[in-house]
Specification:
With 282 residues, this protein is mainly beta. It is built from 1 helix and 23 strands. The strands form 5 sheets. Strands 1, 2, 3, 6, 7, 8, 9, 10, 12, 17, 18, 19 and 23 form a 13-stranded antiparallel beta sheet that branches. A 4-stranded antiparallel beta sheet has the order 11-22-14-15, with no helix packed on it. The radius of gyration is 23 Å and the shape is globular.
């Protein structure tokens, strides 16, 4: 069960409704964020596709034993993103959706300084709830074996005997987009997951990071090199794209062998897209 909902704006400021913090003055009541609403396209009396479109999400919030400062903070946190046309993030349990706070109707404030009722309308132009599944492949703690029999031939022996492998799983119902992070030092890092090889032709030093962002950021898939100072540069053209190797491939459903050289750790983040937040928090 989800007992708290949090909005974090693009500046990093947040406000939480509900939760276990006894000192939090914000609570939430009626909301339709768990409802599923879809438009569809039809042809000849038959549905041919479902459309995402723009969706509004309503949240009834109540402040008790708050303050004038807390009322102002609500407005500041929720209104920041619309001024910049940069979405914030609404979290419900393990799921999140990118959105803006479109309307905030405030009532009851004139009865007492510490009380307020706020009917908030969030709006999203990408109305999917996202849940992450993170797997860390540890080079120094995995079983080493004698190589693997892959369904495709590769130009090099990526399954050689000194490599490392383990079983990983996409636990969701559909194939998923993924991010893959390779920390330095490494050269031409790769990981084979099931039938596909994810690889970037580049060399990095200790403290640097190569990240394949298969889950779009602001609508774009990217490959970046992140330096120790946090600066980034694109390595999009360095991603390997050939038979058996597609740098942005989705991970199929189920269990797969993941294999790599064993010289570095790897972090794989899978992204499930849902029409409603996942309420099973176990």
């Amino acid at each position: 069960m989800i007992n708290e909902i949090t909005y974090i704006n693009s500046r990093g400021d947040s406000i939480t409704f509900g939760g276990d913090d006894a000192g939090n003055p914000w609570h939430y009541g009626v909301t339709d964020i768990f409802d599923i609403k879809q438009d569809y396209e039809e042809l000849g009396g038959r549905i041919i596709s479902f459309l995402g479109g723009i969706r509004e999400l309503g949240l009834h919030a109540v402040m008790r034993k708050g303050s004038l400062e807390e009322r102002d903070r609500l407005v500041d946190v929720l209104s920041y993103d619309s001024k910049l046309a940069t979405p914030g993030t609404l979290y419900a349990g393990e799921s999140y959706i990118k959105c803006y706070a479109k309307d905030v109707e405030q009532t009851g404030w004139h009865y007492a300084e510490g009380s307020l009722t706020a009917d908030i309308v969030f709006v999203s132009d990408d109305p999917v709830w996202v849940r992450k599944h993170v797997i860390t492949l540890m080079a120094d703690s995995e079983r080493r074996d004698g190589g693997l029999d892959y369904p495709h031939d590769y130009p090099f022996d990526y399954g050689y005997s000194s490599g490392t492998s383990r079983i990983i799983e996409n636990p969701y119902m559909l194939p998923v987009k993924c991010d893959i992070a390779f920390p330095g030092p490494c050269a031409d890092p790769y990981v084979i997951i099931g039938p596909n090889r994810y690889q970037v032709k580049a060399s990095i030093k200790k403290g640097q990071l190569i990240i394949i962002q298969g889950y779009p950021v602001e609508g774009r898939k990217r490959i970046i090199l992140r330096d120790v100072d946090g600066s980034e540069r694109s390595l999009l053209s360095n991603g390997v794209r050939e038979e058996g190797a597609h740098v942005f491939a989705e991970v199929p459903v189920g269990r797969h062998v993941a294999a790599w050289s064993g010289a570095y750790n790897i972090e794989v983040t899978m992204y499930e897209e849902r029409l409603s937040p996942c309420q099973n928090l176990s």
